[in-house]
């Protein structure tokens, strides 16, 4: 079930470290699994990691479902967020995705 605040949040793509909306589901899944693995409570037992894990899980729920993703993408196109590109390409997301 998608969180009821999902469509009010900014940029679920950037939460997963994805820079644009045109990526395939494989890339989204790869990023989700990578982030989930490094934020696993057994590996990183902190409140901040738990909160971040919740956020990436919500992002995954939205972007993994084709219908929900399409609605979210349309929302992004209708109400473009000028911060989207800046946020998505922010250097604070500096990690290496697994190959």
UniProtKB/TrEMBL annotation:
It comes from Dipteronia sinensis. InterPro entries: DnaJ_domain (IPR001623), J_dom_sf (IPR036869). Residues 11-76 form the J domain. PROSITE patterns: DNAJ_2. This is J domain-containing protein. Gene3D superfamilies: DnaJ domain (1.10.287.110). SUPFAM superfamilies: Chaperone J-domain (SSF46565). Signal peptide: none annotated. SMART domains: DnaJ. Pfam families: DnaJ. PANTHER family: BNAC03G44070D PROTEIN (PTHR44137), J DOMAIN-CONTAINING PROTEIN (PTHR44137:SF58).
